[in-house]
Amino acid sequence: MSLHTTTHLHNVPAGREAEYAAWFDGAHAADLSRLRGFRSADRYEVTPEQVMPDIAQPWRYLSVYEFETETPEIDLPVLGALLADARDAGLIDDANESERIFSYAMYYDWRSGPNHQKDKPFSSMFIIPANFVAGMEAEYHTWYDEVHIPEVCRVPGFVAMKRGRLSSVQIEPKRFCPGSEIVMCAHQTDDLPFSVKDFSARARGVSPSGIAMEPRSKAGSFARTVHFFRRISGAEQWDGGIAYSGDLSVYPSDFRVTGA
Fold it and tell me: Which domains, from first to last, does the chain contain?
């Protein structure tokens, strides 16, 4: 069986947020549990913290659906019918045709770093619709798997990553996707501004930790966007501070506000 992930980026009409949440946790969850190959579903909401603050964040909500299936052409489209129920009920605001549903064949499941507390839920995640430079695919995969994933998963609060490729099986409404690849990074932190700031600082080589990320591979296209979302579904929520296997005492107390 292989892992497939469907992301649903959408908005909810003002005043109907609680109704959507009740549908997702109630009738929708019950319907999902009967789908062949269904593994899990979680909801997320966009955060104020973004590493690309100048790009548009057109979606308030992200739902992530996981399937284990060898026949995505049969199993994934069934999810589309369930989402159509919410759309027909007026629970999805698609007035400007911003809704996006993308399905991916994942290269692998979550790859954890030393920060990951596997018995605890994620607090948030970022997703990147990404691309590699033509003719440099092998280098792109090697850089991500051997260099970038290990270094990102050592940032305080950043705990696991996984990647995949846009599937040939897509769910209606089929609309433009800016990337052939998907990169997902999960967090366990109750101070996302701190974690995001150190992520950026390590990338620029100015982190108080003294740790700097390797230069970005030229195989990774700049035709990409980054979107941070906090987890809002599930009875259990992250409450473990900032997951970090290193020493947080090296960070000044004002790092979140005035750090380099």
Answer: 2-258 (3.30.70.100)
